[in-house]
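User: Here's a chain of 213 residues. Predict its fold as tokens.
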Amino acid sequence: MAGTIRGKAAAKAAAQVTDQGTPTTTSLTEYTDFKKAIAKSPALISGYQKLLKASNFYKGPINGKYTPAFQKALDNAEESRLSISAIRPLGRDEFLSEQVGLGGDGDGKARTVKQTYIISDSDIEALADKISKFQTGYAIPVKELEKIKRDLRLAQKKNPVIQQYDASGNVMQTGGINEEQFITSRIEQTEAAQTSRATTANEILLGELGGLR
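Assistant: Prediction complete.
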């Protein structure tokens, strides 16, 4: 009976590998579990071998075998995914599919890819609300929010993410905009944020003077 339970658990893990393989963040434990789930299924191994080969990370055969070369290809792809996820959160399958679409074909040729990422309204609103409440104690005014949306998108268009791949598939990434840093700098310049900082400074000063009495 125990063997049957273990078999069902293994089958369930293999069936869920797509879900496990699409988080935009990762941990050593989660990534290890992801590889273990793949290793139990020759069909999944073959599928990822094809994706990795088409995206220039894997040079070996498509044979459904979990080999050191295949694992190294998985690790190299994960490293590249985490690099771009600092700016553009991407799941594993999404990342590999995008690399195939960008021309990765396993030919071992160096290439440069330029991408423009435009942040969504909901992401801007969530970031601006969090930062404004921290800086001023209040939600950001609608007029200021719309101005930030416009200016941030213009900045993103002028500063695309540039990925340079060498013949081995290694990637060096430059460019892009740190949205949180951009919004923070804009909110810090508002009258509400300046007033909040002045009030805090006065409170600290009064506290220090009071402590001298």
